[in-house]
Design a protein that fits this description.
By secondary structure, the protein is α/β, with parallel strands linked by helices. 35% of the residues lie in helices and 20% in strands.
């Protein structure tokens, strides 16, 4: 066989083996973690608890970020992304499908999140999320976004804390049964405090863009910190939320290996 043909055959075999390769091990994912090269339009001094000291960073996005160049974002250090999928019992973010597929093609680990609507029961909202978010290999755990929405034109309802926690557990339990992993809970300082969310069994993704998490959520264990709403990331036009994983690269690799669907 001519040398050029042998070279082509070797290349094809290499490509085929790459496509057929098993999922990355924790060590492989550890090695592939990219350092963040983000900027911030309105940076905050967090004192000693500087989020930039944490090695694994990512973003969360919705249709408001417009078209995203996910390959550019990945090169800038976006290691994970939480992508808005659904809201209430009948709304889907129109950018969810394109973002979900493009993030995966760029090698960004991604999970889908649901924005809770207090005028629709939890079972209906869980069914809506399950209907629209695929249960496929490689996804991070789903996320339940719990916060008051005082600007909602259709629902100003604020249930009692016990009702909030009960409805949350209905949603979390249904998704856990379907996806095989407990959803993460995202929340804000006010909502966490007013509804005693420390009583909820879940991993937490906490927002605090002005003070360290230990000061805002004393005693609460967390996995993700949303530390800015004014981030600047290559590939994204305008502001974007910035997030950090609360551990080392090795801990991130272990967490991902245990929780990817």
């Amino acid at each position: 066989m001519p040398r050029t043909a042998l070279a082509r055959l070797a290349l094809l075999l290499t490509m085929a083996s790459a496509w057929a390769a098993p999922p990355a091990t924790a060590q492989e994912m550890h090695l592939s973690t990219r350092a963040a090269a983000f900027d911030d339009r309105d940076p905050v001094d967090f004192g000693r608890d500087v989020p930039h000291r944490l090695p694994v960073h990512g973003i969360d996005v919705s249709r408001f970020q417009g078209d995203i160049d996910w390959h550019a974002a990945a090169r800038a250090g976006v290691n994970f992304a939480f992508i808005k999928a659904t809201e209430g019992g009948d709304l889907i973010d129109p950018a969810f499908g394109p973002n979900w597929r493009a993030a995966a093609r760029a090698g960004v680990l991604r999970g889908a999140y649901h924005f809770y609507y207090f005028c629709t029961d939890a079972r209906t909202q869980a069914r809506w999320f399950i209907r629209n978010v695929p249960r496929g290999a490689g996804a991070l755990p789903p996320v339940l976004d719990m916060e008051w929405n005082p600007h909602s034109p259709t629902c100003q309802k604020r249930p009692a804390p016990a009702v909030v926690r009960r409805e949350m557990n209905v949603f979390l339990n249904r998704l856990e049964r379907h996806y095989g992993q407990r959803p993460i809970v995202y929340t804000t300082p006010q909502f966490y405090r007013e509804n005693a969310l420390g009583r909820v069994r879940a991993e937490f993704w906490l927002r605090s863009v002005a003070k360290p998490l230990a000061e805002v959520y004393p005693g609460q264990h967390w996995h993700f910190w949303q530390y800015s709403g004014t981030g600047i990331v290559r590939g994204i036009g305008g502001d974007v939320d910035l997030n950090a994983f609360g551990g080392t690269r090795a801990q991130w690799a272990k967490w991902v290996a245990q929780r990817r669907q």
